[in-house]
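Translate sequence into structure tokens.
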Amino acid sequence: QVQLVESGGGLVQAGGSLRLSCTASISVFNFNAMGWYRQAPGKQRELVASITSGGSTNYADSVKGRFTISSDNVFTVLLQMASLKPEDTAVYYCNVRTPGRDYWGRGTQVTVSS
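Result follows.
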């Protein structure tokens, strides 16, 4: 059974950078896509970035040019975040989509101060 663990969240000043890491407990060879979602208090969970097994990436308009997603295609998916803004503050969740189901991490808090 796949378990996802996120790390790298924390407090950072606006304009700073942060890298989130999601590691799977076992290799995920058959994934369709890996991604990062975020949810701020009182808001819906939204897709931030995703990457397919073929390496195709997709980003929310709000993070284009600032965030970069990458994966080793087996264990880890990373989200490099730069030029962070206060509106990026949220709990960030790792997601892995497989033919059978989606897997989710428990989330890691990112707080960007003004």
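Note: The radius of gyration is 13 Å.
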